[in-house]
Amino acid sequence: MANPNKRRGTAWESAIRDYLNWYLGLVDETGAFRNPLSGENIRRAAQEGAKDVGDIHAAPFIIEAKDVKSPAVPTWLRQADVEARHAGFPYGVVVHKVRRAAVWNGRVHMSVRTWTRVRLALGMPAVEFAAAYGWTTSLRGLDTSRWYMTTTVWDLGRLLADYRSTVAGVSGHAAV
What we know:
By secondary structure, the protein is of the alpha+beta class. It has one domain (4-168). The protein is 39% helix and 17% strand. It contains 5 helices and 7 strands. Strand 3, helix 2 (73-87) and strand 4 (91-96) form a beta-alpha-beta unit. The longest helix is centred in the first third of the chain and has 20 residues, at 4-23. It is globular and about 45 Å long.
């Protein structure tokens, strides 16, 4: 892989995947899947032609991983939503690398609309949901399509575990 940006992006995607699989207990101490056929395993997606299906599949989320200096979060969130639809997943999120920080400190961004849908699926009031998973708000002007919520990869792991145990059951997917 000659392109350094591609190499950095692939490394970031792999770090997110490996961390979430470890956090959720889906791999053993050597990093091998406990159940290689489980739909709950976090996997880097194989690109499928013209319709991009996101970088990482972490049911029920499609993760668009970004390792760039200058963030463009609202644009990325629109991209993640389109890719989630292409892949047949209910939610698209973005995970942006924080320079010189561990993977669990990466920034997870979710549109306010997606945040609300996840919160309602969990049956949690907004204040409780925000506190439970460390969400902060980015309100950018009066255009609500540019507003988004942010937390960490560590908190995304907790959210994923809770969502799967309360909403999705065994398969990791839920009709939301």
